[in-house]
UniProtKB/TrEMBL annotation:
Protein name as catalogued: Phytanoyl-CoA dioxygenase
InterPro entries assigned to the protein according to its UniProt record, in alphabetical order: IPNS-like_sf (IPR027443), Phytyl_CoA_dOase-like (IPR008775)
One protein family per Pfam: PhyH
Organism: Microdochium trichocladiopsis
SUPFAM superfamilies referenced in this protein's UniProt entry, alphabetically: Clavaminate synthase-like
Residues covered by region (Disordered): 359-386
Taxonomy, superkingdom: Eukaryota
Transmembrane annotation, as ranges: none
Cited Gene3D superfamilies: B-lactam Antibiotic, Isopenicillin N Synthase, Chain (2.60.120.330)
Regions of compositional bias (Basic and acidic residues) in chain numbering: 361-385
């Protein structure tokens, strides 16, 4: 079976915004109307990008100044049987667009990861001490986004990050979700949010991480939790049920909310839409519920990228420790995206949370006081152990 779709890509250029670096005048090219090959599974089917698709972009000599494999699919990449009953966590996931899966790793393993994150923070020798709250300030910490999201300093390829991605139950979850063992992993960051900070301001920023032009479920984000996360602790807030209303909401022209942390309005960023309070009410009026996700060390949460969500800042005294993990079928990727992932891996560069497209290298040095951070790193502090499994998940080695 063949399904026509349009493929487009955009020329990008650097900006101060870590994940949303787009040229204010993107050059969009309509490439072709090409068939997608369909694969089938008991409860769903998905469509594969043909290997001979050629992605075209405005010429740019810099690998870092563009997003790679940035196609927008006009139809679902995967179609699930809405009447299927799985008898496991997938039933909740497909109903609500999100699910918490308990005890994916042991509490001891979670403590190991939390400790490794603390060692990483202190390795910059900026005076940070987890036992001294007076050091919970920017001057004592590497540069982060939203007070705790770390995506620079080659942190995406730290040994602890790859160990977390390859935890057996983590891989099994994504294999079960997508119905394939042939997966790609994002080169995503981590979150270490310190409580009681007085040097930063925070406000809710409800958003989704899928461009309205992408149809259906094309990415599912994950978060592996390492520390206790209760009502007052920093954590994830999700709008349950919002993924199913994605197409209905965007059937009308919508303007992304001008939040204080939003990129400048002239930028057409790739996969971010910020919701206003009016938008939040639109979803709530249709039965959706905004819920703070409480978790224990070792728990894992999944959410469809169409789901409204945001990170809540700590109100108590607990430090937040998490690793972001996203995997999608390698069949979703085209050759340009795979080549870009290979180059990112070889250069220890991070990307957005998208494993198979919109491969945007996070190569620019983080800015501290208007200048590149002198503590910047271009390789991990602790390099991962290179295995065939890692290389396949990274898109470097074929299945």
């Amino acid at each position: 079976m063949y399904l026509p779709t349009f493929y487009i890509t955009a020329c990008l250029s650097p900006s101060p915004w870590p994940l949303f670096n787009l040229n204010p005048h993107p050059q969009i090219f309509l490439l072709s109307t090409l068939p997608l090959r369909q694969s089938t599974h008991q409860h769903f089917s998905y469509f594969r990008t043909p290997p001979d698709v050629t992605m075209v972009a405005k010429h740019d000599d810099s690998f870092n100044n563009k997003s790679h494999g940035a196609q927008f699919e006009g139809k679902d990449l995967i179609t699930f049987d809405e009447n299927a009953v799985y008898g496991d966590w997938r039933d909740e996931f497909h109903k609500q667009g999100c699910v918490v899966i308990k005890n994916v790793i042991t509490k001891e393993r979670a403590e190991y990861y939390a400790q490794k994150q603390m060692e990483w923070l202190k390795s910059f020798d900026l005076g940070f001490d987890e036992n001294d709250p007076s050091t919970y300030t920017a001057e004592h910490l590497p540069v982060s986004f939203k007070g705790g999201m770390y995506m620079a300093y080659a942190s995406s390829h730290e040994k602890m990050a790859w160990e977390a991605r390859m935890e057996p139950k983590i891989v099994e979850i994504f294999e079960t979700l997508w119905g394939t063992k042939e997966l790609l992993c994002s080169f995503d960051g981590m979150n270490i949010s310190l409580p009681n900070r007085t040097d930063i301001k925070w406000s809710p920023w409800p958003h989704c991480d899928q461009n309205p032009r992408r149809k259906g479920m094309q990415a599912v984000q994950g978060l592996l939790n390492y520390a206790p996360c209760g009502d007052k602790d920093g954590g994830l807030v999700l709008m349950k049920g919002s993924a199913k209303l994605f197409n209905e909401f965007f059937a009308e022209k919508r303007e992304s909310f001008d939040h204080e942390d939003a990129p400048p309005p002239e930028l057409e960023y790739m996969d971010l839409f910020l919701f206003s309070q009016k938008d939040v009410k639109w979803f709530e009026d249709r039965g959706c519920e905004l819920v703070k996700i409480n978790m224990e060390p070792g728990d894992f949460v999944l959410w469809d990228s169409r789901t409204m969500h945001y990170a809540k800042f700590p109100e108590g005294n607990q430090i937040r420790h998490v690793q972001y993990i996203c995997m999608t079928p390698v069949q979703f990727a085209n050759e340009e995206a795979l080549a870009a992932k290979k180059e990112c891996f070889e250069k220890w560069q991070g990307t957005t949370h998208w494993p198979h497209c919109n491969i945007r290298p996070t190569d620019d040095a983080p800015m501290r006081d208007g200048k590149p951070c002198p503590k910047n790193r271009t390789e991990p502090r602790e390099k991962p152990v290179i295995t065939d499994q890692l290389l396949r998940l990274a898109g470097v080695k074929s299945y």
